[in-house]
Design brief:
Radius of gyration: 58 Å
Shape: rod-shaped
Number of helices: 8
CATH superfamily of one domain: Response regulator
CATH class of one domain: Alpha Beta
CATH topology of one domain: Rossmann fold
Order of helices and strands: HEEEEEHEHEHEHEHEHHEEE
Strand content: 15-25%
Distance between the termini: 159 Å
Strand order of the largest sheet: 1-2-3-5-4
Length: 395
């Protein structure tokens, strides 16, 4: 098995070969200026051709003797040395000379495209659509795995709101990006939203070239929904920014704009609540003291005490009547008991009388049956309280 190289050995080998190759020590390369930025004492930029890039640097730019205005889109010829960075594994041209070759063809096409759209009114302020003060339905077009999504939503969630986000993930760079963004834009535009946000983080000019494509610009212009662009670079560096109804630099700024009025509304609402609370307390205090004043007057002239006295008298009369009725009731109950007792005694006497009746014939014999008597017989009936004689008429 072939022996492997360590990372450090590989880097040193590559760096040594680049350093000792005469071709890499005297490089001439031409391209369009892009991604220009000044960092500390050094000037960094890229040379691009279509979507290909070569990174360059001028170390200690102010002391380099290179006198050139670096502008995006200018075509330049760079003479320099190829440098390999062990820590970033990047190959960079350390420029020693830079010659301006005029405006690049690609940049000229960009300016021509921009001018054409401008003449057609794509960038006119009169055509810009206004965004609601309190947007609640937000369409969002960005990468699903990019920092832009997190930055945008985190800002939205910082304040109470009723915002609903309709997210359509897309690629934001590469060959398929334009078609995906256009389809997402058209889809969200049919949903009756308050605003559609197209955003991404920063990137190179080549990465951001997607947002200069004709199909995307025309689709954004045709949209009925207001468009807010925030694609991580200067406002005037993309055609999408110019055609959008509002353009901001970063996803964070876009999120801040969406919830800005919600933040103000929350603050204003609290202030108004405090004012209302103060007014209500003051009004309550005034009414409370008036109520006390009028209560004193009412107490002074009110027949309430007389009514209370009359109610007490009525209460006494009622209690007295109740007691009298109760006594009468009890007395009548007692009388009824005595009458009932007497009736029982009379009944007992009657029952006793019924049991004491005795019937005798003339001879003094007891008569117990109808067969013992006939018409014309004389009988004697004995009761408990006396006796009578009777004569049978029919028997």
């Amino acid at each position: 098995m072939r022996k492997s190289l360590s990372v450090k050995q590989f880097n040193e080998y590559l760096k040594s070969n680049i350093k000792h190759d005469p071709i890499f020590q005297n490089v001439y390369i031409s391209g369009e200026l892009a991604n220009i930025k000044f960092n500390k004492s050094h000037l960094y930029f890229s040379l691009k051709e279509d979507r290909d890039l070569v990174d360059c640097v001028i170390y200690y730019y102010e002391e380099s003797g290179i006198d050139l205005d670096f502008n995006e889109g200018e075509k330049v010829l760079v003479k320099g040395v190829l440098v390999y960075n062990n820590y970033s594994s990047r190959v960079t041209i350390s420029a020693k000379e830079v010659t301006n070759l005029g405006r690049s063809e690609a940049y000229s096409k960009f300016l021509k495209k921009k001018e054409d759209f401008q003449k057609r009114g794509f960038f006119d302020k009169a055509n810009k659509k206004s965004i609601k003060k309190f947007p609640s339905k937000i369409g969002l077009i960005t990468s699903a795995d990019g920092a832009a999504l997190v930055d945008f939503i985190s800002v939205i969630n910082q304040k109470p709101n009723d915002i609903h986000i309709y997210f359509n993930p897309v690629r934001v760079q590469g060959n398929e990006a334009v078609d995906l963004i256009v389809k997402a834009l058209e889809r969200l535009d049919r949903m009756d939203l308050d605003v559609i946000v197209i955003t991404r983080g920063g990137g190179s000019e080549v990465d951001l070239a997607t947002f200069n494509e004709k199909d995307l610009i025309e689709s954004a212009y045709r949209a009925k929904t207001p468009i807010l662009s925030a694609i991580g670079h200067k406002i005037d560096s993309s055609l999408l920014d110019l055609v959008s109804d509002l353009s901001l630099q970063t996803p964070t700024e876009a999120g801040s704009f969406i919830v800005k009025n919600y933040s103000d509304f929350d603050k204003d609402f609290r202030n108004k609540l405090e004012k209302i609370d103060s007014l209500v307390n003051k009004k309550y205090g005034d009414l409370y003291f008036k109520l006390i004043y009028y209560k004193e007057i009412l107490d002074k002239y009110s027949p309430y005490q007389k009514i209370e006295a009359r109610l007490k008298d009525l209460s006494y009369i009622k209690n007295d009547l109740d007691n009298k009725l109760l006594r009468t009731y009890e007395k009548n109950i007692s009388r009824l008991g005595l009458i009932d007792l007497r009736l029982k005694r009379i009944k007992d006497l009657i029952d006793l009388g019924k049991k004491s009746i005795r019937l005798r014939n003339r001879l003094g014999h007891d008569v117990y049956s109808l067969k013992q008597v006939k018409a014309g017989d004389e009988l004697e009936i004995d009761f408990y309280d006396g006796s009578i004689k009777v004569k049978v008429i029919d028997g």
